[in-house]
Amino acid sequence: MNTLNLFELAHQALMCPDADQKVALTHALRAAWLAGELAVEDAGAVQAIADPGRPARPELVQPRDLPRRKPSTVEGRAVLFHALCHIEFNAINLALDAVYRFRGMPSSFYLDWLQVADEEASHFVMLREHLRGLGQDYGDYPAHNGLWEMAQKTAHDVLVRMALVPRCLEARGLDVSPGIKAKLLTVGDTAGAACLDIILRDEIGHVAIGNRWYLSRCAERGLEPMSRYQQLLDEYMDGPLRPPFHIEARREAGFSEDELAYLEGVG
Q1: Beta carbons within 8 Å of 217's beta carbon, 6+ residues apart
Q2: 243 Cβ contact partners less than 8 Å away, ≥ 6 residues apart
Q3: Terminal-to-terminal C-alpha distance of the chain
Q4: Is 5 helix (H, G, I), strand (E, B) or coil?
Q5: Quick one: pLDDT at residue 2?
Q6: Which of 14, 61, 65, 159 could cross-link to 217 by cystine, CB 3.0-4.6 Å?
């Protein structure tokens, strides 16, 4: 029996436009890897991907054009959970792209990012189910493409990707989670708050994976992690991030005390 190729199957899942099928392909991909059924042999040149596979809806707009509603209303919570669904859908693509794009990495790198993709797919399904309970579905509101735009900007270097996607964008998810959860509990959406608890738990692990691979690539290249991170924030994010910061979650995810102090502006 011919061994299946990890990179080819990751690309297939990445480019799949149907949300349900993408989820199924992602789960199957990780299962096949864990079963030892996938090879990491050369699968041809890595392709530039302007757009990953995604449904025709939601319509993609500029962030300033997104609907804004207070979560005190059902519609407001639907807008919120639609945005969270879109984040998780993009996160599936980002993790699959990391598997597909960055060749020659240790096998543990692919194990890690297949786990991330698998968990992001589960998050998407969970959030979509909650959104449907609010009378809406994924695609019913517009969304923005900022996460994938960062994937494009970091496609040239695994170190830059690790610094700016898990350690920056995903870590922002850790930061805002407590505030969103508090608002949901205030209006009695305990099921939605429970979704956020699950996602926070898993995302701490995802950020930790990004931290681990960022630090290992810095060590491999003889770079000082803290100063390189600051340089990348200046280059790609217009300088230091702004609060709030979920310090305990970031600490659990592997940020150093020096980095935490820097982020808080007291370093």
Answers
A1: 158, 159, 162
A2: 175, 264
A3: 57
A4: strand
A5: 54
A6: 159
* Closest by Cα among 147, 116, 97 to 209: 116
Question: In which residue are the tokens 């080819």 written?
Answer: 8
Which of 225, 232, 234 has the alpha carbon at shortest distance from 258?
225
Distance CA 142, CA 121 (A): 20
Q: Among residues of the chain, what percentage have pLDDT more than 90?
A: 83
Give the 3-state secondary structure of residue 60: strand
Each residue's pLDDT tens digit, 183-193: 999 999 999 99
Which fold, 70-263? Ferritin (1.20.1260)
Count CA atoms closer than 13 A to 68's CA, side-chain side.
3
205/89 Cα distance (integer angstroms): 18
For residue 52, whether the previous peptide bond is cis, meaning omega lies within 30 degrees of 0, is no
Looking only at the bridges linking them, the beta strands covering 4-5 and 38-39 are parallel
Which has more pLDDT, 196 or 239? 196
- Residue-wise pLDDT for 53-69, tens only, equals 999 999 999 988 888 87
CA-wise closest residue to 60 among 126, 149, 151: 149
Q: What is the pTM of this model?
A: 0.95
From CA 243, how far away is CA 82, in angstroms rounded?
24
The per-residue DSSP string of 157-192 comes to -HHHHHHHIIIIIIHHHHHHHHHHHHHHHHTT-HHH
Return the closest-CA partner of residue 211 out of 250, 156, 262, 267.
250
Q: Are 22 and 16 in contact (CB under 8 A)?
A: yes
Angle at which helices 171-186 and 190-221 cross, to 10°: 170
Q: Give the per-residue pLDDT at 66.
A: 84
- Which tens digits make up the pLDDT trace of 14-36? 999 999 999 999 999 999 999 99
